[in-house]
Amino acid sequence: MLCLQDEWVVCRIFHKSTGLNKPTNPSRRRINSTVDDGLSGVMDPASSSGPRSSFTDAENVVKGTSGHSSSSYLNPLGAAVRPGLVQLNVEHRLSGSIVSGPSLDTWLSADMKPQVTPSAGDNLNLGAAIDLINRFSAMARVCLAEFSHVKPTHSSKNRFPYPAFLRIKRSPLSLPSFLLPGEKRSKLFGKATHEMDHRAEWVLVLALGVCILGRSVEGLGVNWGRMAAHKLPPKTVVKMLKDNGIQKVKLFEVDPSTMDALAGSEIEVMVAIPNSDLATMNSYQSAKNWVKKNVTNYNVEGGVKIKYVAVGNQPLHKSYNNTFDKVTFPALKNIQNALNEAGRGDSVKATIPLNSDVYYTPPDRPVPSAGRFRKDIRGLMTLILEFLSKNNAPFTINIYPFLSVYANKNFPFNYAFFDGATPVVDNSIKYTNVFDANFDTLVSAMKAAGHENLTIMVGEVGWPTDGDVNANIRNAYRFYDGFLPKLAANIGTPLRPGSMEVYLLSLLDEDAKSIAPGDFERHWGLFRYDGQPKFAIDLSGMKQEKLLVPAQNVEYLRPKWCMLNPNAKDLSKLGENIKYACLYADCTSLGYGSSCHGLEPSGNASYAFNMFFQVKNQDPQSCGFQGLGTITTQNISQGRCNFTIQIAAGFSVAAGLTRLVVVCLQFAIVVALLAAT
């Protein structure tokens, strides 16, 4: 079964002959079923115990590594791969046992045409293979052959879930053509000719079903920002939230299409007023109008479950040079009073997401118990605390352990995580991580202001995966692998034990965000720009190291890239053209320590040209660059540096539903053919 949560495809493999299961070659070696680094291994059919005819009775789960659904397993190190034979494992779950499935092979390539098969011993990047499969058909996922070899690519000590690589050793099968309307030729299923004493015919059957939803830590939400050149449709994102059991979302605006998609979802929503509108909200009538349009209008039976209104976004940050100091508190008062007047004040609370730079500890006593609010806003903070307390609204704080590392090269690196560090001792309390210390510094500052019991909510916390030497998959995994179990256990902090409400930063990467804070700012997402998960993360906090459920039915632009023309002779204008491309597209992955750092100069140019080309929806004129650019259909990704193919600008859920209808029709045809035989 390939489980895509509450809308998924079941892959069942029916065997049309009675004799099966005994390979003709008994010397085929068994692959160790338990790999010492934590990856789930696979077993060769020759060594699996018990009869195999139960494949017609039980579910088969397509897996990648470490128990992850291969339909969504993406390579955090980049998606470059040589086109060719793709082999995946089929796991069979009976009484907890894991055995390999039948051998079926598929040919896929970047342009969906059969290519030269890799020779024995060639490595295929699993993430890239899955990326190709996703592009081929989001619904017609492929149940394929067992891994013939699993090669761990990460340290057994860290058990970090980098994908394994596939080592091909079998010859390709002779498979008939299989096409979806509007898609190029591929080969998907047919007669098997592998090492079995009967030439067994296997048929891939697709069906729809219901699956148990993923779940997350109670009180856990995500930030959903939409500053991207190509946005996923809101309905697709809402389904992704539900598929992953995420029941709380924090927005940075009130977008009608987003609100319509959230209607009826039962997801708790924090809507937001941008900083640029705070001055307008100083008018009570304007605040009433805003509440009517953006809260009352949606917060109805069967509508959007609005719980909070974020009044600004870190409006008191030092970088704003006091720009919003005088308008923030009046806006907060007017919005909450307007909510009260509209009869929504008991269920919807106004709050101000603030950066942790609103408090500090003195240089001579840098411990949490010495926390105080900044002197320049201390009076303002007291007014805010009093008003929030009066209206039973939470204080919202954003905490970024990553920024502690980023801003101070002497910061103790391990202190940013949760797996043990030299503690900071504050009286009798030992702080082993900066999150707890930062949070309790706020608790102490609130206590000093006379409001130590006010509820605190964490509006943003997370770890970026690119754009800096410390912003990468490994560190992000390490951070969440410590933080989420801590939340699940309701440990809290030394001064605030118990559960806490937290919003992770963030759901998706945003390639159009300002990079004033740093290049990492566009890479906070748990998911890539296209809704594909970056790495294994268990939102329940149970450390199951499972992949998140990806966005479904994502449509991509054609497999075309823009690159530096290798025949270009005059390179004198190359620098200015790269600069121009990066002005309008995201080149942050080229920075020092980032995923594409270290490319040759020609690679840097090609990366910049392609990012601009994709932002412009692959318009041929956008690959000119004064004669320096040329379009190619060959994937020019290099190593861990992925040269992006953007999602289609016209991508819609309707397109995905059309695919689903096609798959169902194909299912009916297959059933009819089986019945006829």
TrEMBL record:
TM regions (residue ranges): 647-676
Principal EC category: hydrolase
Name of a matching Pfam family: X8
InterPro entries: GH (IPR017853), Glyco_hydro_17 (IPR000490), Glyco_hydro_17_plant (IPR044965), X8 (IPR012946)
Domain X8 intervals: 560-643
Gene Ontology cellular-component annotations: plasma membrane; side of membrane
Membrane-topology annotation of the record: Lipid-anchor; GPI-anchor
Key word Membrane present: yes
Stored SUPFAM superfamilies: (Trans)glycosidases
A Gene Ontology molecular function term of the record: glucan endo-1,3-beta-D-glucosidase activity
Record keywords: Cell membrane, Disulfide bond, Glycoprotein, Glycosidase, GPI-anchor, Hydrolase, Lipoprotein, Membrane, Plant defense, Signal, Transmembrane, Transmembrane helix
SMART domains named in the record: X8
Protein's UniProt name: glucan endo-1,3-beta-D-glucosidase
Species of provenance: Trapa natans
